[in-house]
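Pilot study result, target chain (576 residues):
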Amino acid sequence: MASALKYVFSLTGLGLLASSSCVGGNEGAERAVYTDVDASAAGGAAGGGMASSTGGTGNTGVGGTGNVGTGGVDTGGTGNVGTGGVGASSAGGAGGTTATGGSAGTAGSAAASAGGASTGGSAGGAGVAGASGGSTDSGAPKDGGANDGSVGIEAGGEGGLQCPPNTGDCDNDETNGCETGLTTLVDCGGCRVGCDLTNASEVCTNGVCSLAMCNSGFMSCDNDESTGCETNTATDPMNCGGCNQSCTNDNGAALCTGGICTPMCLALFGDCDSNPNNGCETSLATLSNCGTCGTPCDIAGSGETCATGVCTPTTCGPGFENCQTGNPDCETNTLTDVNNCGGCGIQCVNPNGTTSCNQGSCAPVCTGNGANCDGNLVNGCEALLNTNTHCGTCGVPCAPPNATGDCSTGTCQLGSCNPGASTCDGNSQNGCEVNHSTFDNACGTPEDFGARCGDLNCDPICLTSALAVLGTATGTGSHWVKARVNECSLCPSDVEALITLVSPPGVDYDLHVYSACGTTPLISSGGGIGVTEFITLTSTEVSGANNDFEFYVEIRYFEGESCSPWTLTIDGSDCT
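Predicted structure:
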């Protein structure tokens, strides 16, 4: 398919072409109740009842008949009338019939005034006082009513009773006597005197607290039972496992663990006699005890030292060295050992052959395509001579121009051409010698086709002209051409040039036309692979002006590969 473009310009327009650029308390309440109780007691002997805290009717009780009791009170106050109950007194004569007690007298200091005489009953025998006074908080003697109504006193607290040995009145209640034995661990020799010794079991015998047995791991080393078993013989290094059994260690720390001395040794010291009591007695930097107890330092055929706790040779025979960690011998023959050839850690290897150690030097033998290209005997035949780096010979690459090489056989062959390149001469050594994208000249040095007339009408009578070849070129790469068309006729006529590019099958070359080298193209044509392209340049007639023009043609590679060339033809006019 042909591609044709036409560019028409005036001479003036051509000349202007240029390059482009880019709470309340409880104490008061309790006191009030206590006052009322004592006040009611003044009439209680007769009535046998106790007044309520608010002065209400007394409760029924058992009272003496006909007698008025004198009750003691704390603060006094008028007593309430009590209604006597039927019955006999608790300790006196027979009770009379129901008697109504008289009103209680006003309370005095220590005793209330007597109540009125009872009525309604015959006189009875003297009765025991109705209610006794309450004991004080501090254990003072309690008030008790006498059988004749007088105030009586009884002993209270521990001081009030004479108790047998090893007993006591520990609850301050005389009614139950000396209720507490003083030979227990809670009350030992006195009320609430505990028997509790440190880290021990105790016993209270005849009121005396004494040590029975120490707890496991403890002993009494100060011979004072009052301090109990004060010493922890499981952890005390001065009393380890028993009193005054001390742990010593001149070369470290001495601990006591579970009652056994445990020495903590300094570096290069050990407990070699298995006696923990004398600590770390042995140096571990000697030839007989080197690093550990009982380990000798003796290297065959060599002097040795254990100054650092490690047995180390001081001298080795020729060709021998100490290469094994933890082995103090001069065990390695560096003249023949491929893993230590000529010195510890120098290992002979060969990835492409065999190797050995000969008098302290590695001796590789190459096989197949292997080669020692770096000159290092230790790493052997490290290279292969069938690679693109070393092809047949060390250091000779396989890299054909504009191509990828192939040296799999040991000889450099052409693998594949780079994009935009072709091999056209059959010579693999020069690779893909045709590089379609490379210019064989440049904008500044184009192929010059020269000049020719371009008039469309010619003299003498302005006849139409015919095409005439200005120049022809062929090639397989990008290319530059320069040409000129002149106005040769005196006839009014446009001046024209025809540019034709024939691309071979398989390749796409494009046309770009410039008015001057390095400027922006006037016109371009890109027709595709194998397409023939045409560009026509026309300078329109300007009366009295010279229509001559010069132009540059660029043939630029776009894509594809082929060994066939392109052909460029530029035609002008046959006016002469």
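One observation from the pilot: Residues 11-159 have pLDDT under 50 and may be disordered. A full batch analysis is planned for the follow-on phase.
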